[in-house]
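Exercise (ungraded).
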Amino acid sequence: MDYYYAPGRNHLFVPGPVNIPEPVLRAMNRNNEDYRSPAIPAFTKTLLEDVKRIFKTTSGTTFLIPTTGTGAWESALTNTLSPRDRIISFEIGQFSLLWIDQMQRLNFDVDVVSSEWGRGANLDVLSAKLAQDKEHKVKAVCIVHNETATGVTNNLAAVRRVLDDCGHPALLLVDGVSSICALDFRMDEWGVDVALTGSQKALSMPTGMGIICASPKAMEAAKSAKSLRVFFDWNDYLKFYKLGTFWPYTPSIQLLYGLRAALDLLFEEGLNNVFARHARLGRATRLAVEAWGLKNCSQREEWYSDTVTAVIIPPYINSADIVKRAWNRYNMSLGLGLNKVAGKAFRIGHLGNVNELQLLGCLSGVEMILKDVGYPVKLGSGVAAAAAYLQHSIPLFASRV
Amino acid sequence: MDYYYAPGRNHLFVPGPVNIPEPVLRAMNRNNEDYRSPAIPAFTKTLLEDVKRIFKTTSGTTFLIPTTGTGAWESALTNTLSPRDRIISFEIGQFSLLWIDQMQRLNFDVDVVSSEWGRGANLDVLSAKLAQDKEHKVKAVCIVHNETATGVTNNLAAVRRVLDDCGHPALLLVDGVSSICALDFRMDEWGVDVALTGSQKALSMPTGMGIICASPKAMEAAKSAKSLRVFFDWNDYLKFYKLGTFWPYTPSIQLLYGLRAALDLLFEEGLNNVFARHARLGRATRLAVEAWGLKNCSQREEWYSDTVTAVIIPPYINSADIVKRAWNRYNMSLGLGLNKVAGKAFRIGHLGNVNELQLLGCLSGVEMILKDVGYPVKLGSGVAAAAAYLQHSIPLFASRV
Amino acid sequence: MDYYYAPGRNHLFVPGPVNIPEPVLRAMNRNNEDYRSPAIPAFTKTLLEDVKRIFKTTSGTTFLIPTTGTGAWESALTNTLSPRDRIISFEIGQFSLLWIDQMQRLNFDVDVVSSEWGRGANLDVLSAKLAQDKEHKVKAVCIVHNETATGVTNNLAAVRRVLDDCGHPALLLVDGVSSICALDFRMDEWGVDVALTGSQKALSMPTGMGIICASPKAMEAAKSAKSLRVFFDWNDYLKFYKLGTFWPYTPSIQLLYGLRAALDLLFEEGLNNVFARHARLGRATRLAVEAWGLKNCSQREEWYSDTVTAVIIPPYINSADIVKRAWNRYNMSLGLGLNKVAGKAFRIGHLGNVNELQLLGCLSGVEMILKDVGYPVKLGSGVAAAAAYLQHSIPLFASRV
Amino acid sequence: MDYYYAPGRNHLFVPGPVNIPEPVLRAMNRNNEDYRSPAIPAFTKTLLEDVKRIFKTTSGTTFLIPTTGTGAWESALTNTLSPRDRIISFEIGQFSLLWIDQMQRLNFDVDVVSSEWGRGANLDVLSAKLAQDKEHKVKAVCIVHNETATGVTNNLAAVRRVLDDCGHPALLLVDGVSSICALDFRMDEWGVDVALTGSQKALSMPTGMGIICASPKAMEAAKSAKSLRVFFDWNDYLKFYKLGTFWPYTPSIQLLYGLRAALDLLFEEGLNNVFARHARLGRATRLAVEAWGLKNCSQREEWYSDTVTAVIIPPYINSADIVKRAWNRYNMSLGLGLNKVAGKAFRIGHLGNVNELQLLGCLSGVEMILKDVGYPVKLGSGVAAAAAYLQHSIPLFASRV
């Protein structure tokens, strides 16, 4: 049974959950297994090891927690910090805002650095605050790598430099939910202490697995962190890692096999090729937006996201109508504008297991919808702009030549 | 394991096998079952009944044979005709040619009426031949409803009129492989005696089931037809229909459930809506071809196919390069030109469970490929032409408004 | 890829995760969908309503949280209680122990009532404690309905009576992880305030969904409970229920469809028939254990579990060898003895979507293994005892007669 | 949707179609693909090569035809023989009878050598007939390796010896439908000219693929054979083999991937281990039958089949009642007695991807059913006899120790 059937494939262009490739679906099409047999621990061990590659870390410790991104956030905070610890965090859009809300409700003392939505994290303010914090009361800097609501990517290398320049020991906790496996992510090089993502984003799996990586420094912090936690407690995981049984409670067997398949696809394509593909998709989308005469919510090229583009529309159009129209006429799913940009923006997710012709199909649909809702766009203009770029940048598939 | 993996969805635009919708894949994801239990016969009975709707027949007898379209052809011929029987058939492209080849090798006496490829069946010649055949030596007229190689649809109502005008009793055997479930097909109204299709075409299933419908007149002929046959023998099926066990040999349980799901989707969308969708997709494709300055292999509007478009390209381009390029750069599958139009045409299949944005993605890819291979197309031009039409013709999904 | 392949079906007889029926696997075999489209909220609404039937409640509020049973425990505690609140809980086996450990680590004041493992909750002690608690300092009584480690089922109606007899207002929080959908569970009748289970138990789904039901009294408590929580916060869910979008964060689309299929199967079989089937399987297992001359860890008939049987073996055998042997010779998965009964007991899970012949296959395997490891069992004896009972108690399938 | 749902797994013990292992189901869970792309021919090539191993041939030519066993029979006959050619064939049960019926209807001159059902092919008669045939009018000897109706396995090495002893050049055509991939089959060693099986038998796939292997001598015969054929014509396949495109018409993409997975499983287990497993299952079944005091339809040990056992029951019981009872009470599927043994025998299929505990579950069910229908069996007796043997013969899984 499906709700509200429509013919042909659903064009899923929300910035998560994203399209699941067939090999992942196939891998997950299986009965449950006893997770206490010798098989699942041996399998888990290879996953915990291989998943480090998506973080570009060799020193990190990885956790595969049966939860969502929101749970992964909670895991990162409660395992490394104690009640009333001071955090600096950046509000640049809806998801950074939700994380800050979580920090506050979990009883941390959050110093919020806000930017206009559409701009990146204000690192000058960070720099100033850290410089002032001679006593190192700030225990953590929390930042969203890619703000999914506005299509803004923060510069993590720059954040690291600010911390280093101040010689500040605060932990660096990073939400990589809509970046990891799509944008280059260098945990060790950037000195990230906790990085996290969710299975339903660029890994292109179903929702249900929080993938978390902790640096040695974060692991050290976890020993003394006083935040209450049981379900999310890394120490329980560590206990079972040592026992070699790996799981403090029942994992989803299906998601483990799904992760194996998802990693295999990423490694087969090559992570750098995956990043290049996302760069192409992002740029193609922006060229279409420009051709339509519309504005990217992300204000500057340095912040442009290659995984999601939030498109600002004229005030006489409600972006919710665009999303609704996509759904009830073209079997396409676009992202709504959220909170401060509700009604003002719609979002095109271009992350995960998706290719150029899928995107062009989406863009051709957006053009029709824009006309449907009264925006004077020239049909074909965005597609033409995107295609002119793609035609010169898509490589041949090495394996198929 | 996949051969030659490429990221994102494969854009499958060959005129069969076509995209399988998820509900059909789901229905087929199952273990084998005992086909002699009470369940499978009861299930089969509903399928044999419901499948009549795709032929628009109430008087026909249906067969679901574990074979392909080629086997379905053989079934139609050997069950209704005897060795050396005279057949009139039309050669208008590769598939009609292959069927004629089969007729000849099965020892029928075939009177071939050839047309230039790109033109439909010459009904004037048919009329003349039937008029001359006072002794009714012609036992069957065999015609391909939609020639997949050239994108030509024959007018079956007109064929019927010719037969009726001559008062000729020949059987009318129709290959509906690339038409049934996509183009309107009226078995009873048009007096078709045997109609057939394959599961991998507009039914949008895997290959492996030949769906055949025989009129009472064809069933009568089957009683006396002397062509040797066992595997394809309808009489064996009839014997088991009477017993209520329905199967002379083992059917594919998975395809039975797949057929159920496929029929349910067609009926949920509504057959007339399905035909209208194919009409939209066909016209949109032709508008793009026109915008590119290229020619439809199908020479006249009366013959335009709404399930496949064969596009003639300039002599300085080899159409095989276009198909290859689609595959090794864009993860798209287009149809080759076959036999007389090899190298000269490529084919876009737009049948089965596919929608407008999928087609526009395909058209945007074709534009890039045309440029890649040196044809001076304006990027976006075909998409714009197709979208301009589609924007005014796609209806809202009734269920989603 | 599978780890350590063995031919034929794996005989999965651990008390969770359990066998997933094909209709559930099929329902879950699907791409992601936009959970903010109109479809998913409409779908969720029916699920939240229908899932009440498995709790036998009309007044409860249901939550489908992307977590495991451990997370569901945490959700129950943190939403209804405040730090240092007093809880009475029963330690009767490993899972009740783990829940108590969670309570303590979440900073509640737990009054632990221990029983010898193999016995049920000591309700006399409960009665005494509640009677003494004139000031109603005890805020909650927490009990595991069915202790999976020992195969002991507690009598929830009796617990309710104790509370009522004392006129005590404490909340009654119940772990129904290995009971709900297998043993009769009457939330409203028994005055349960929070009941919870996990998808991979008697619902026969993959792991990943905590299913929680809260009484009006529990919902009232949730308004003032001061335990820190975000991911597990019911109030966030309520906010989105009111908005009609239902999800504070991304659910697993696949598990939602899986739940639909799982509920449909339970309702088609009939919940009372499901309970009767589990009663048959439980009794058949116990008859086999008796025939083998072995002891049930559960000491009295009143506590016998119909979902899992822990079998005590002679001291000269290590039960881990039985479990290992099952796996490396018979492709069968049995449960280990845990903690206090490690080495001393092995467990047969007989819950979820499983039938009598599957169980008899399992029992025949256990007989061989017992001989393998040196226990002098008569082959066929347990199967005969179980079959003698089953032969007279299995009903015909109503639909198949 | 399922017809007549019953809880737990269906116990599928008909001698085909058999249980499909999950890796095969997973491999087949996929969209259609363009079979004219470079991928499918490359993939097909490896399949045509690897499938030779199941025939133990290096010199044979293999065909994967979208049909059933009945179609594979027709393919074997029509490609190697001409109308009125003389065939010697053996009637020893329903399937050999059906093949003979096909031979006759295809206009061959069949010399039928009948045995009492329950006995193997009478090779003395064969020997005498061949010795008399000085002019070599007999063009083929056709034999069913394993007669599925009676559970009789013929000795192919002995057949070869008879042919060799007479120096007779007749082709040896073998139906290996219920033997190949379960019983040792040595095409080259035994000088088999055409061997064939169907995908739904010991390969443990869905129905729909006829797997055929032809010796060089058979291939030579195919050049001159005058039987009419198109769909089944090997020469059409050969033409496409030479072109490197491999398919004269559309194959089932799903079955190709399913075959890959099925072969991989067989090779991973090891063909000799597969044969040994079937030998164990066959013997265990026969020991149970003996313990029940019932007779094997197969009259002598030399003919006992390790893939199917037909059990003769006392005249006061109708075997159809046993099969019905299995289905409507135990969710088990057993084989009916066919034709001459209708009502007198029921059949237990023990072939394909099945293991010992599955069989013991089946046997325990049969015991209950026998009592249900009034046969005085001691419950547990058959299981005990089978288990006593299995306990000493099942090996540990090498990979799991």
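Further reading is listed at the end of the chapter. For now, observe: DSSP finds 15 helices and 14 strands in chain D. Chain D has a mean pLDDT of 97.
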